[in-house]
Amino acid sequence: MEHRVAIVGAGVSGLTCGVLFAEHGYRTAIFAKETGQQTISGAAAALWFPYDAEPAEKVIPWALQTYKVLVDLICHPMHSPGRAKPSHGGVSMIELRQFSRTSEIQIPDWAIPLGARRLPSVATSVRLVQDCAQRGGYSSAFKSGFALKVPLMDTTIYLDYLANRLLDVGGEIHGNARFEKLEEVDLNFDLVINCAGIGARELVQDIDLEPHRGQVAIVPKIDNLSCAIVCDDLPLMYAIPRTNDCVYGGTNDISDNLDADPIATACILDECSRVLKIDNPPVLAERVGLRPFRKSGVRLECDRLRDGRTVIHNYGHGGSGFTLSWGCAEEVFALGGLLG
Ligand SMILES: Cc1cc2nc3c(=O)[nH]c(=O)nc-3n(C[C@H](O)[C@H](O)[C@H](O)COP(=O)(O)OP(=O)(O)OC[C@H]3O[C@@H](n4cnc5c(N)ncnc54)[C@H](O)[C@@H]3O)c2cc1C
Question: What pLDDT, in 10s, does the model give residues 51-67?
Fold first, then answer.
């Protein structure tokens, strides 16, 4: 029997699963309340780095698998029907400089084979910093740091790229589709994949999900800023240069509030500009998203709907949805493949 696969959710998790199933010849359709830039995925900085997701023993292998797929995409851009040029989909490698304001930062074990290196102490690091921002001295805001090359997904390009890959092989995306429960998915689909992000709280009554609210400010491209600067100590701070602009962040509080907070935006601008030693740039846009953090860890497992159909849950990726996307999608596909 030919399987028909319905995916609930058009964020990075749903789109990545959709691409994998559709490119393997499954009839695949995505149904979602919001699509594209309206999803929480559209608000992300989308740098590859495991952050705010559990459990580490699963997150790191999923993240490393995703790293491989993204590097492969950069090295071997995809040809798509109807498109003259092969595309990297807005994915590029960028140097991430991860700092601590207060302590000696530890390089995670998994980062060492990827080439992570400790940044010289602040006193001797001026040149390294200048290489990145050519303004010098912003490292004086930090006590220690390490550098690592990682993939960056420009969400303004990457989400459309995934959607087009799915559509190019006959997949479908249906927006404005809101379900109260998964059993409402058309019975013509015999496999349902739940990629509803924070929406799974209501959709499958998962009280383990916690909204880790994040706010960012999009500012114009910053001259000579060629690497991503991140500091996870409070106040959380990052400046991530993209193709056409720069993402300034950020916040991480437990809250459902999707309205941009002007005070938070002002604090983000002040802290990023203080670190970069530049004047506050104008704000092009403010974005707020709810990281779907799940206290007991990412939910990636098979279950059965009340009507007997199989569902595979794939949600709860917290602050790492992009970082885990391909590793998780491949595991979903392996579970789905077993059914055939
Ligand atoms: C400010 C910020 C910065 C971030 N930075 C990074 C980063 O640098 N790197 C990284 O890896 N991650 C980052 N994240 C985390 C990342 O954005 C999320 O983990 C990821 O977007 C989750 O993707 P998802 O597809 O699972 O969920 P979402 O993008 O939330 O998509 C869920 C989909 O399900 C649909 N849906 C939900 N409920 C229903 C329903 N009842 N019926 C129908 N459809 C429904 C929604 O409409 C949507 O289409 C960041 C997040 C924020 C907020």
Answer: 999 999 999 999 999 99
Q: Does domain 93-150+210-293 have CATH number 3.10.350.10?
A: no
Rounded to a whole number of angstroms, the distance between the first and last alpha carbons of the chain is 8
The model's confidence at residue 338, banded by pLDDT at 50, 70 and 90, is: low
Residue 336 Cβ contacting ligand 1 at under 6 Å: no
pTM over 0.90: yes
DSSP letter for each residue of 182-208: GGGS-TT-SEEEE--GGGHHHHS--TT
Kindly state if the Cβ of 250 falls inside 6 Å of ligand 1: yes
Give Rg (Cα) of the chain. 20
| Domain ranges within the chain, ordered by starting residue | 4-89+153-209+294-339, 93-150+210-293
Closest protein CA for atom 22 of ligand 1: 321
Per-residue pLDDT at 2: 72
| CA atoms of 40 and 300, how far apart (whole Å) | 19
Beta carbons of 291 and 298 less than 8 angstroms apart: no
| Cβ-proximal residues to 331 (8 Å cutoff; 6+ apart), any chain | 62, 300
Q: Which fold has domain 4-89+153-209+294-339?
A: Rossmann fold (3.40.50)
**pLDDT score, position 106:** 93
Residue count of the chain, please give it: 340
Is the pLDDT reported for residue 305 higher than 80? yes
Task: Give the mean model confidence (pLDDT) for residues 231-236.
Answer: 92
Site to substitute for ligand 1 among 39, 181, 212, 248, most atoms within 8 A of C-beta: 39
**35 sits in which H/E element:** none
Tokens matching residue 78: 């995809």
Shortest CA distance to 80 belongs to which of 182, 197, 168?
168
Query: Identical fold at 4-89+153-209+294-339 and 93-150+210-293?
Result: no
